[in-house]
C-alpha cells in the first residue's frame, strides 16, 4: 500500500516520463525511507500521507490511516481529539514550524508520548493547502537532543581536549581546550599532519590512532609523553588519552569515519609522582649507604661506599678530590690544589677505587669547576653545551674527566667549618643536565663523605701521636 493517496501527487511532482518511476511512486518511496514518522492533512483535516515509520510507532497501516478525518476515535482518545486536531491544524495559519507533545493511541490500545513538528503545506497559489506533521517518540527525541547537546558541550565547554581525527590521521574537529593545549587556533589545526603540531611523541600517538581504527577502542586510557610546538617554544607534556572509533550509523557495514581522541594534561601530576618516587629512592639510598658505611673499619673506605650508593641512578661517573695539605679554613686565601682520592672505574661498572697514594695534585686548569667549588665553598654546575661529539670529548678531557662526560656537578666537602675537598658527579649525553633537586642530593652525599673523611684525618692524627 502506498504511503500517500495518488490523486494530485503527479501534478505536484511533474508528469511521469516514459520508463521512469511515477512521481507518486517516488514520493511514496521517499516518505517510506524517512527515519522520522510523517503524516499530512489536507485543509479539511483529512489524512493524506502516512509513512512506514508512523506505522512502526503507532501500529496503524497507511491503508487504515489515509482518508480518516483527523485522529479522533483511533489515534487519540476522544476526549483529547478536538484539542489535538486544533493544535495541529493551527500550523496552517502560523509562520514556521510548531512543536507540540501529544499522547497518541497505538493500535494495540496502549499510548505513546510523541513530539511533533508541524508546518503548513502551501499550494501553487501560495495559500495553505494542508499541514504536514513529523513526529517521533519523546524518549527517542530526548536521546537525540542529549547527544547533540553533549557533542556541542564537548566542543565548546569541556575542560579536557577533544579532537576528531579522520581516517588519514588529521584533525577534523578540535575543541577550544585542545586548541589551547596545542598552542594554535581551532581552525589552524584542521587538516594538518600531527607531525606539524608535535615535535616528539607523534609516532606513538599515530600508532594508537591506527590501532583504534583497525581494532576499536582500548580498554583503558593511555598516558603519552609528547613535545608540543608552541609560539613560545617546545614544551614537554604528558597527556592521559582515551580513544573511541567513530563509525557511520547510516552505513550497512561499519565504516570508520575516524577516531574520537579525548585527552587531559596530567604533566604536573606525573612530574609530582616522579619527583616523589625519585625522592623516596634517593632517601632509601642514603639510608642504605649510612648502614653500609657504619660497618667499614677504614673511614676512607666508608667514603667510597657513600659514593657508590649515590651513583646509582644519579650519574655515570663520580670522583672525590681532597685538598692538598691541611684542610682549607674559612676565608683562607692560599691557592687551591686538589689530590684525587677516589674515582669510579672508567670501563665496566664497579665499586669506586682509591687513588692518589703518591699525593700528586690533579692538573686542573685555572677556573676548573672543582677549583671554583672549593674557592666559593658552594656547589658548581657545568655543561659542555650543544657541541659536536668530538668537541664535547675535548671539553671533558681538558678538565681531567672521562671523555663521555657532558654534564658535571661539583659539591664541596665541608666538615667542622673547614673545606676538605670536592666530590664531582658526571653524566653522559644520554642523561639530562643536573637540576636544582640534583644539587640538593649531591650536597647531602657530600656532607656524609666529608664527615667520614674528617674522621679519617682524626684517626690518622691519633695514630701519629
Q: Can you offer a commentary on this structure?
A:
- With 465 residues, the protein is of the alpha+beta class.
- 36% of the residues lie in helices and 27% in strands.
- The strands form three sheets. Strands 12, 13, 14, 15, 16, 17 and 18 form a seven-stranded antiparallel beta sheet that branches. A six-stranded antiparallel beta sheet has the order 7-6-11-10-9-8, with helices on both faces. Strands 2-1-5-4-3 form a five-stranded antiparallel beta sheet.
- A hairpin with an 8-residue loop joins β10 and β11.
- α10 (267-293) packs antiparallel against α11 (299-311) and α11 packs antiparallel against α14 (436-464).
- The chain is rod-shaped.
- Residues 1-21 have low confidence and may be disordered.
Summarize the structure.
It contains 14 helices and 18 strands. The chain has 465 residues and is α+β, with helices and mostly antiparallel strands.
The 3D shape can be described as rod-shaped
Tell me about the biggest sheet? Answer: 7 strands, antiparallel
Helix content: 25-40%
Give the overall average pLDDT.
Answer: 84
Radius of gyration: 41 Å
Which class best fits the helix and strand makeup?
alpha+beta
What are the segments in which pLDDT stays under 50 over at least 5 consecutive residues? 1-21
Q: Determine the strand fraction and express it as a percent band.
A: 25-35%
Instruction: Please give the count of helices.
Output: 14
The end-to-end span amounts to 122 Å
Number of strands: 18
Amino acid at each position: 500500500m502506498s504511503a500517500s493517496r495518488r490523486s494530485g501527487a503527479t501534478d505536484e511532482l511533474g508528469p511521469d516520463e516514459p520508463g521512469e518511476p511515477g512521481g507518486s511512486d517516488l514520493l511514496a518511496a521517499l516518505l517510506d525511507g524517512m527515519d522520522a514518522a510523517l503524516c499530512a492533512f489536507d485543509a479539511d483535516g483529512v489524512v493524506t500521507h502516512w509513512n512506514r515509520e508512523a506505522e512502526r510507532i503507532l501500529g496503524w497501516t497507511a491503508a487504515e490511516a489515509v482518508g480518516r478525518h483527523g485522529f479522533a476515535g483511533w489515534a487519540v482518545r476522544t476526549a483529547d481529539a478536538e484539542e489535538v486536531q486544533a493544535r495541529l491544524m493551527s500550523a496552517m495559519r502560523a509562520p514556521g514550524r510548531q512543536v507540540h507533545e501529544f499522547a497518541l493511541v497505538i493500535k494495540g490500545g496502549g499510548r505513546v508520548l510523541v513530539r511533533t513538528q508541524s508546518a503548513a503545506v502551501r499550494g501553487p497559489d501560495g495559500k495553505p493547502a494542508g499541514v504536514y506533521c513529523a513526529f517521533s517518540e519523546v524518549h527517542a527525541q530526548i536521546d537525540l537532543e542529549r547527544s547533540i547537546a553533549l557533542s556541542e558541550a564537548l566542543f565548546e565547554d569541556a575542560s579536557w581536549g577533544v579532537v576528531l581525527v579522520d581516517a588519514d590521521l588529521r584533525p577534523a574537529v578540535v575543541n577550544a581546550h585542545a586548541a589551547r593545549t596545542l598552542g594554535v587556533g581551532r581552525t589552524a589545526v584542521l587538516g594538518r599532519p600531527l607531525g606539524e603540531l608535535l615535535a616528539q611523541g607523534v609516532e606513538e600517538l599515530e600508532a594508537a590512532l591506527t590501532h583504534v581504527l583497525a581494532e576499536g577502542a582500548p580498554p583503558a586510557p593511555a598516558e603519552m609523553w609528547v613535545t608540543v610546538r608552541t609560539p613560545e617554544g617546545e614544551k614537554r607534556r604528558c597527556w592521559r588519552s582515551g580513544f573511541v572509533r567513530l563509525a557511520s550509523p547510516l552505513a550497512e557495514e561499519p565504516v570508520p569515519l575516524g577516531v574520537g581522541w579525548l585527552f587531559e594534561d596530567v604533566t604536573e601530576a606525573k612530574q609530582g609522582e616522579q619527583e616523589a618516587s625519585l625522592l623516596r629512592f634517593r632517601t632509601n639510598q642514603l639510608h642504605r649507604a649510612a648502614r653500609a658505611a657504619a660497618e667499614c673499619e677504614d673511614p676512607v673506605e666508608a667514603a667510597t661506599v657513600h659514593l657508590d650508593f649515590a651513583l646509582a641512578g644519579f650519574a655515570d661517573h663520580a670522583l672525590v678530590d681532597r685538598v692538598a695539605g691541611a684542610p682549607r679554613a674559612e676565608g683562607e686565601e692560599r691557592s687551591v690544589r686538589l689530590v684525587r682520592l677516589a674515582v669510579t672505574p672508567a670501563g665496566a661498572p664497579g665499586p669506586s677505587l682509591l687513588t692518589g697514594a703518591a699525593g700528586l695534585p690533579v692538573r686542573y686548569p685555572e677556573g676548573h669547576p672543582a677549583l671554583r667549588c672549593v674557592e666559593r665553598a658552594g656547589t658548581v654546575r657545568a655543561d659542555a653545551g650543544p657541541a659536536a661529539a668530538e668537541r664535547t670529548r675535548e671539553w671533558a678531557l681538558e678538565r681531567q674527566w672521562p671523555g663521555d662526560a657532558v654534564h658535571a656537578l661539583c659539591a664541596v666537602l665541608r666538615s667542622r667549618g673547614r673545606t676538605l675537598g670536592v666530590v664531582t658527579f658526571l653524566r653522559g649525553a644520554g642523561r639530562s643536565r643536573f637540576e636544582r633537586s640534583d644539587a640538593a642530593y649531591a650536597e647531602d652525599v657530600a656532607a656524609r663523605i666529608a664527615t667520614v673523611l674528617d674522621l679519617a684525618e682524626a684517626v690518622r692524627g691519633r695514630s701519629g701521636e
